[in-house]
Amino acid sequence: MRSARWILGLAGALAAAAWPATARAAEPDAGPVQIVPLKVLTRSGNLYVRGSMKQKKETFGGGSDSNQKDTYLEEGVDLQSTGYIYHPNLMEWFAAFRLGLTQQQIDLNETQEKFRGTLLGFDLSGLLLQKKRVSARVFASRTQNQVDRNFAARLEVIQSRFGVELIRRGKFPITLLLEQLGLTEKDEQRNDDQTSRHARFTVSDQRNSDHFTELILDLLDVTETITNIGDTTSTTEDASYRQLEALLNTVHRFGSGTEKNRFAASGRLRDRTGYFPEREMDLDASLDLVHSPTLTSFYHAAYHDNRTDTDQDKTTTLDAGFAKQIYESLNIAGRGNWTSSQFIGGTQKIVGLFTDLQYHKKTPIGPYTSQLSLGWQREQEQNAGSTRVVRDESHTLDDVTFTQLMQANVISGTVQVTNADHTQTYVLDSDYELQTTGAFTEIRRKTTGDIAADQAVLVTYSIAVAGDSTFDTTTLTWNNRLALEKVPLTPYYNIHRRADKLTGGQDPGNLDTQTTQLFGLQLDWKGLIVNVEHETRDQMLYPSSVADRVRARYQHRLTRDADLSLGGLIEKLTYDSAARYNLGPNGDRLDTTTAFARTTIRLRNSLLLRLSADYIKTQGRTNDERAEFKGQLEWNYRNIELSVEARQNFYQHEQNKGNEQAILFSIKRRF
Length: 671
Known about the structure:
The chain has one helix and 35 strands. By secondary structure, the chain is mainly beta.
C-alpha cells in the first residue's frame, strides 16, 4: 500500500510540473542541454467522450419476441509528458495518466440494469544512465478498460505492471528483467484474478555478425483464482502455476560470397507445475548449403517431448532436400522426411518422399505456368487400445459455416473446447454446436455464447483407432494457368488427389480417397476481375459434391478523393448420396450468395466519409441470411477529432430473425 501511495505521489508531482495553468506544447531546446533538477520537454493531453447506443429486436421460432437496448457512455482525460532529471544521461522519464467514468444501461424487455464504473490508469517509466555501460529502466503502469459485449454487461479488464530492467552493453550484452504483473477480468458471471512474478535473464554473444548465440532463462510464478458466479451459489477454482523455461539459440554463417551457408540450432526446456502441469523439451537443428547459384540443399533434425499428467508425446523428425534451377524456366525441388512418434498407448512411424516442379514458359498466345507436386508417404501405427486422444487442435470458429475437425471417427461425447490458456472450458449447445457428416465431426460457434469472433480455441477429443495398421498415401497436385495476351482472359485447371491404401494390419477406418478438380476462367479488365469456376470433389468418407460459382471484384478510383470497391459470389453446390450421409431435408445442396460494396470519400481536407454494405445468404444445409449497412464520418479540425459510425443489421438464422441498429461516436479535444 505504501509503495502504491509513493508511486501516485510521484505521479502527481510529475503531472503538476508537466501541466502548469498555462499549459502549452514546449518547443525543443536549441543549443547545449540544460542541467536542471527537473526538465519538462513535452506535454500534451486530450479530453474525450465516446459511447454507443444499440437496439436489437428478435423474433424466435416459437413466436416469442425480444427487445434489447444497450447504452454506453465513457468520458475521461488523458495527460502525457516527457522530460529528464538533472541531465538526459542521468534519467529520461515518461509519464501518462488517464481518469475516466463509465455508464451503461441495458434494457431487456421489461427488465432494466444499470452499471457504473471508473477508469484509472497511468504509465510511468524512466531510463537511467543511458550512455553508460550499465543502465536501468524502471517502469510502473496500470490500465483499466471496458470490453464491449453486445447487450451484456461489459467485461472489465484491469492490467498492471511494475518492475525494473538492468541492461549491460558490449560484446556480451546482458539484460535482467524483474517485474510483477496483474490481470483482473470480471463481469457478472465470472471473475479471473491473476498476479504474476516474472524474471528473465538474457545473455548473448555478438562479437561477430556471422556468429550469434543467445541464452534466455525465464521464470514465471502465477497466482490465479477463477470464480464462477451462479444464481444461488459460486464456485472458486485455483489455477495457479509456476513455469521455468530455458532457451538457447545459435546461428552461424560460413562460406564465401554473398550467399553464405547457414547453420542454426535451438534448445528449449519448459517445466510447468500446478494448474495444468506440463513438461516440454524441444531440440532443433538445420543446415542450409549453397552449392552454386542454381543448387541449394537443406538438412533438418528435430526432437519434441511433451508430457502431461495424462499423456506423453515423443516425436523425432529428420528432413533433407534440395532445390535446383534448370535453365530459366524449370525449378525442381525434392525432399524426404522420417518421423517417429511415441504416445501413451501406441507408436507412429512415417516416411515420405516429395517432389515439386515449377515450369513457366512464354508461348505465342501468352505466358504459361505449371506447378506439379508429387508425394508418397508410408505410415505405420501401433495402438494398444481402441481409442486415441487428439489434444489441443487449434481452430478459429465461424458462426455461419461449420469447421471440420482434422481427424475422422470422433467418439461422441469426448469433445472438449477451451481457450488458449486452458483457463475456460466452453459449453456444448451454449457456446458451440456440433454436427456429424460421414466420418467427420464439424463444429460451429454460437453468437450468443462466450466464444468471440476470430478467437482461437483449442479442441481436444478422442478418436476410434485400429490396433495395428500400415497404409500408404499418395498425393498429386497439378496447377496450370495460361494468361492470354490478345484478350484479357486466363483459363486455369487445378487437380488435387490424395489416396490412402491399406498395406498391412487392420483398417483404421479413416482411410480415404479424395479427388478435386477445378476448371476456371478469369477475366481481368480495367479493374474488374471475374472468375467462373466448375469444381468437382469425389470422396469416400465425406459427401462428394459438384459446385459452380461466379466470383467478381471491381476496384476503381472515381476521383482523386473517392474510390469504389465492389464484389460478390454466387455458388451452387450439390452433394451426392445425401441419404447415405443423413444430410436431412434440403441437406443435399448449399447455395451461397455474398456481396459487398465499399467507398471512401474525402469531402474536405478535414472530413472523411466511409460507406459499406455487406450481404451473405446460405440455403440448404445451413440457412442463414445477413445484411449490414455501415456509414462512418471522420472530422479533424485543429485540435478536435470527431468520429460517428452508424450500423444497421438484418439477419435470419434458421427459425430466428431480427434486426439491430447501432450508433458509435467519439469526440476528442487535444491540448
